[in-house]
Amino acid sequence: MLSVLSIASEAFPLVKTGGLADVAGALPLALTREGVEMRTLLPGYPAVMSKLEAAETVHAYPALMGGPAQVLAGRAGGLDLFVLDAPHLYQRPGNIYLGPDGRDWPDNSFRFAALARAGADLAKRIAADVVHAHDWQGALAPVYLHYDGGTRPGTVLTLHNMAFQGHYYGDLLSALGLPAEAMAIEGVEYFGGIGFLKGGILFADKVTTVSPTYAREILTPEFGMALDGLLRTRAADVEGIVNGIDDEIWNPETDATLAKTYSASRLDDRVANRAACQARFGLSPSPEAPLFGVVSRLTSQKGLDLLLACMPGLVARGGQLALLGAGEPSLEQGFRALAAAYPDQVGCVIGYDETLAHRIQAGVDFLVVPSRFEPCGLTQLCALRYGAAPLVARVGGLADTVIDANEAALTAGVATGLQFHPPEIGALDHAISRAFDLCRDPMVMRRLRLNGMRADVSWRTPAKRYAALYQKLRMVS
Ligand code: ADP
Ligand code: GLC
Fold first, then answer.
1. What kind of architecture, by CATH, is found in domain 2-244+460-476?
2. Residue 388 to residues 294, 414, 423: CA-CA distances in angstroms?
């Protein structure tokens, strides 16, 4: 059996700030069907340590980045885990990345270098065939394995979010356990400092990202976030594999959080969830008003400032919005003010709420995702599965997972949602007016919903692709 060590900074259901957690949490199970045994190394945050069962020490470090640490093996949240128990790095309350002042923990360089260092050591100790590191937090693992020399497993780095790159002062080099020679263009040197993600991209055998379109986009200056030049030199080894979602957790037929369960063959039962969603957000109980939804981090990536600008038009046309999200204060404030101004038509819940996310997906007509860039996006996949038509910007994974209701797609009966481009106010406004047009024809909307619900958004196909990739790496390593 192929053995893979995944190195991630979050995994659902233990710790989650975004889609990375969903991916890291779901991929191992999906891979077992492909004959791959994936185990995951996570930091020993309080939320992980408190749930860890039957833990055994695999290795102890007298000192790892400033304090004693040990790698434990055990189970938590249904996952087979290795946990880096390092109280000086992870035993602290609150957000896993940010301190109480809302800024990165000042020692994040050490916190995630330690994770990567422990992962690189562990991979050899357990004779893993492949190390699969995620984002900047895991990115030094291929770097350490490179400089350690000797026999090593194959390495994959997956880019989920290049907006975060792990960029630190160069004088940390030796404290991070990197050799002097690493401070070079052909090493971790990045704009005069140390770039974790830069180093990972350079030294991983394969670099993947989470959709084919984003894999192409990041080779351009517009989307490459200053790493496009380096990525172009690695273009032959860059691949996009679309994410799946856990179709057990996201299953409208069995979802106990819903007002009424439903399926493609019992689509009329979905109406009860629409009414429940309107009631939850204090919206008028109109069966006709097109109901738009948002479940998102509120950051500039997600383009919700564009939606905010389009809201007066949406409201004037008689539409409604149910929004769940948290993030930048200006966006939180903007949507709150809108809900106060139009209480019958706009409702917002500022916060993070998994249950409410399910209820929105089950209730709304359209799920809006106006992202400026989107490596994959999971919420539009949940929307498809729950019969809400995604209304999305045509970028990254949104371009790869939604079929726009243009004339050809409608005639062929294959449309699943609406796309717009570029991610700007005018184009979004136009897409919203197209959504109103679609709502005038219940048969078309029904077709759209059914197509989405029948689309395969599971991990089955992506897991096969990852398994094939690991297989190739085992052969070269
Ligand atoms: P990203 O990882 O960039 O935030 P994704 O769409 O890939 O975007 O994943 C976001 C995940 O987080 C999805 O599972 C989504 O349902 C969930 N999510 C985002 N915001 C919230 C929220 N406020 N409440 C509940 N779930 C949320
Ligand atoms: C990131 C991206 C998102 C992607 C997720 C999981 O957070 O922003 O598009 O779906 O990672 O890969």
1. 3-Layer(aba) Sandwich (3.40)
2. 11, 15, 21
